[in-house]
Every structure is written in structure tokens, then in C-alpha cells.
Amino acid sequence: MLPGVAWAHATLTQTIPGFAKRVQRSPAFVELRFDQSVKALPNAITVYTAKGKIVSGRARGGTDRRIVTVPVHNLQRGGYTVRWRLVSADSHVVSGVFTFGVRRTAPKVTEAFGASGPTTTEHVVRWLYFLALALVAGGLGFRLLVVRGPLPTRAERRFYLLTGAGVVAAIEVGILAFLLRAEDALQLPFGAFFYGDLSPLASTRFGTAFVAMTLGFALVSAFLFLAWLTDRTVLLWPAFLLAIGFASGLSLSGHSAVDSGSSWLSELADWAHLTAASLWVGGLVQLAFVVWPLAPGLRRGAFLGFSKLATVLIAVLLSAGIYLSVLRLPRLSDLWTAGYGQVLLVKLALVSLALLWGAAHHFLVRPSLERGAPLFAGLPRSLIGESAVGMAILLAAAVLVESRPPPRPPAAPSIASHASTP
Amino acid sequence: MQPAAEFVHWMFATGFLLLGLCLLAQAVVGDEVWRRRRWRAYLWPGLAFLMGVLMWPVMVLYTNSTIHMVAHGSWAQAMMLAGGAELGLVRGKLKSSYWHLTMPLAFLVSGTAILVHEQNGWLFARAAFLHHLIGWLMIAGAIFPFAAAFRPRSAVWRSGFALAFVVLGVLLYCDRDVAPIFGHISAQAGTPHR
């Protein structure tokens, strides 16, 4: 089933074999059907094996000018990528990609032949997404769980500015991330990519997460706006719950959901890890950039309140992080031999630094504040420093999320199978 | 299950028509009368904001081309921004009247987006013609909210602003037909229907 038809250039309405379909026998041809006439050049449709071998012949149009076919020859068991590029009858180039499998599951469209995997740009975009999530979820969490009462006007305005910037960034960066992934899968020059068909990507786990999270954060932005408009803090609750709820889209479409060994527990741990990190970093940002400069009367209470919350967050962060590390790195040596492990080591080093920093706040600054001692003059800079380390951890996490964990070793033969061996 | 694209266009056409009629009523009777019921002041800005929120599902569920998706995203944001700014002004949360300029900005962004996202020429078919017409209407129509921001009591600018939405609604109702326009239809446009 394809999405509704866009009324413009020719749009692909049906394919044989279907998108991401598994077929039991080799098809004799691949057929594309459009809603308008198209012109088929000889190389209009190319079918690749997983290793990039071309297995299709010359494409040709039929008597119905909306249909283009290409013959394929006795396809063996495996996954295949179809890349198509046609001239729409109105002279615009339309193009796309889809996959199918012969006697096996079709590869994901993000793993189609020609897709190159995450680039540095994607790492940066993922990092920006984490930062946006921290600003919105952490900001809302801080406002609702730490500083519950009214804020001075200027502080309230800055809170809404920072959180609003976070939710807008979450939407925009989410769109950018989706388009970058689509560009990678489609492998088209920028001009042609404008008219590329994104529907195969939208039906992947990543695409579904994009759809859900964009809608979720659009709702978060609406609630946040209404809370600001009506001065009703209670409206921040649905915004907060939606933000942390829809953040699960990342966990449900990432390693924790699809890699071997994944389960509902790994998805839950990933979500808890992400949520705790967002609340921690976002809370620090609020403390350093909203309460400290604009609400002097609330500094002491906010610091002590956040310190209590941070203790819980760190416990969740560490326990979920350790569980996920053990799950994804079956051998200790993977830490220094696999690329994924090396990035994890960098992340662990940064986490250790952040923990030391947090411990200094918790065990040195907090007791003196509880005794009513004057506020430490360097504390705002120290909070900004801790926030910066938190953001660096999110960068390492972004690279980690886009990297592939090392493969799990094959399971050892069971005692039963040994027993049955003659 | 997604509604047919025609229905989505008609739903938004209805929204724009209501929005235009509210604005027209306000321009005719004047602010004093219109705002005797306090909720009426929030009516059209709230509707614009809501339509922006409702545009997001259209953006993410109809992904058959990049430009189509990006265009719908820009309309969602333009409507939320302009509607939100007007709500902020009505509520008194925003003080500067320059916030009214978000509406002409939304017109310009939306008009440009619809022109860029329509790839066929004016006379390709009725829908292509209407897309071009709507695009240029939005760009030219930006003059009305722009002038109304500086001349808020001018009935001419305010009525023009209202009528721009009414015309937009009517054009959207006519959209999405494969049908000739002034006797022309491209041979590639498909079989005319309805």
C-alpha cells in the first residue's frame, strides 16, 4: 500500500515485486507503475544483488505509458535492490529505491545496495537531536520536578525560550535526520533528491519513529505554547510526558530494538538511559542559564532539589548503561578491538569526568549549602562546565548510536546436542 | 488508514474558509463589537494555530516526495507561528505590534513553498493551474496582512486580508482534479475524472 498520491510529477503507485516483499520464486521482470506517463531510458531501472552485481536488462515502456518494466534473469536466493530513475512526461526526473527478497527477507531500504551508512553529518545531526531532547525534556522536568513554584518573569521567559527552542529543534533536526537517511538510501544528487520517493523509507522502523516523533513533538510544542499563553503550569505535564514518551521512538528504532539479543528489556533500558541523560543535561542547563542568573532567590533550593534528582538520574543512567554495554559487547576485549567499543571507552571516560564533577557538587557544595553557608562564587561556571561535559557525552552517544556493535559470537553447542552426537 | 488526499484538501479548505469569514466579520463590524464576547478574539488566531498543528500529520504521512514533505512542514510551521503570534497578542503576552508581521511572513513562505512544490506548468491540468494561482495569491496577498499590521483600522486592508483566506479556501476546494483548465489538459496528466 502506497501513500496518497501527490499531484505533481509522476508518482510511483505500484511495484512488482512489492516494496520490501519476500517472494518465493525469482520474478521474470520488475515492473513499476506510475500515475502519469513516464519515459523509460534503457537504464531507467537497475536491479542489484547485495554485492552490487547488476542482474537486470534494458528497461522498456509498455503500451500503457505509465508502466515501465525491466527483465531479470533467474534470481538466486538473496536480497535485491531496485534503483529507478525516469523522466516524467512533464520532463521532470523522478527517482527512488526499494528492495525485495527472493526466498529471504528483503533488506531494509536503509541497507539497500549503494547506501553508505552514517556520515559525520549524521553523527552531528543525531547529537543536535540529543541536545534538543535534553533542552525540552530536561527543561520541562526541571520546571516540574525541581522548581515547582512561580519563577520571576524574566526567568520564566527564558525557561520558555530555551524549552521552546528545544522542541522546535527536535522537530527540525528530526526532519533533517530523516532526509539525510533518505538521501543516503536513495543515493541521488541533491536536485533529483528533491523529487525522490521517500515512502519506502517511511515504512521502515526509522521512518515509523520519525512519523511518531514528529507528531509527538508537534503536540509538545502546542502544549508548551498553551502553557505559556495561559500561564498554566499544569499544561507542562502533558508536554513533559509526551516528550519523554515519544523519545522512546529512538529506542524502538535503534540497536536496542533490532540487534541480536534485543528484547523489551533492552528497549526499556535504552529509553531509561536516554531519558535520564536528557533530564540530567537539560536540568543542568536550566540551573546554569535560567535560575542562577535570573532567579537569585531560588538558587539554593533549586541546587539542592536538582542534586537529589541527579542522584536518582545517575543511578538509572549507570545501571541502564552497564546493562546495555554488556548486552552489546559480549567480550571485554571488544572494548579496545571493536570501533564500537572504542567509542564506548571515550564515552565512559567522559561519564567518569562528569561523575567526578557531579560528586564534587554533591559531596562538597551541597552540604555547605544545607548548612546555610554563602553560595560558592565559582558555582555557576562549574555548572556550565558540568553541562558542557554532559553535552560531550551526548556527542559520544550520538556516534555510538550510529555505529554497529560487534557481532555476537555463535551460541555454544548445547549439552543436549553433544549428548546426541555419536 | 489515511484519508484520500482530496478529503484532506477539502478539510483544510473548510478551515481557511472559516478563518476568512471570521476575519471578514471582524473587519465589517469592527474590533469593539467583535470582541464583546471575549472568546471571539481568540477564534481566528486559534483556528490558524490548530490548522498548523493538524498539518503535521499530512506532512509525515504523505511522503511521496521530499519537496512535498518539506512544503507541508513549512505550512505547518508558518500557520503555527502566525496563529501563535496572534494569540500571544490577543492574550497580551506579546506587546510589540511587529508580531503581526508573522502573518505576511507566513503568506510569503507558504506561497513560495506551494510554487516550488508544483512541478508542472500552469496549463498542465486544473490542479497545477490552481497550485500556481494559490502560490501567487499567497505571495501577492501578503500585502494585505502587511499593510493591516501598520494600518490596523483600515477596512480595505483588513477585508483584503480576510478575502485572501476566503479565496484560498475556494481554490483549495477546486484543487486535485485531473481536469482541463480553459480547455487545456496535458496528454500526460491522466484521464480526466469528475
Based on Cα principal axes, name the global outline of chain B.
globular
Tell me how many strands of chain B there are: 0
Q: What is the third-level CATH name, the topology of the largest domain in chain A?
A: Formate dehydrogenase/DMSO reductase fold
The first-level CATH class of the largest domain in chain A is given as Mainly Alpha
The domain count of chain A comes to 2
Report low-confidence residues of chain B grouped into runs of 5 or more.
none
CATH class of chain B: Mainly Alpha
Q: Quick one: which chains have the greatest interface?
A: A-B, 43 and 44 residues
Largest sheet of chain B: none
Strand content of chain A: 5-15%
Number of helices of chain B: 8
User: What CATH architecture label of the largest domain in chain A applies?
Assistant: Up-down Bundle
Arithmetic mean pLDDT of chain B: 91
Spatial gap, N to C terminus of chain A: 52 Å
Order of helices and strands of chain A: EEEEEEEEEHHHHHHHHHHHHHH
Q: Enter the CATH topology name of chain B.
A: Serine Threonine Protein Phosphatase 5, Tetratricopeptide repeat
Quaternary organization: heterodimer
CATH architecture of chain B: Alpha Horseshoe
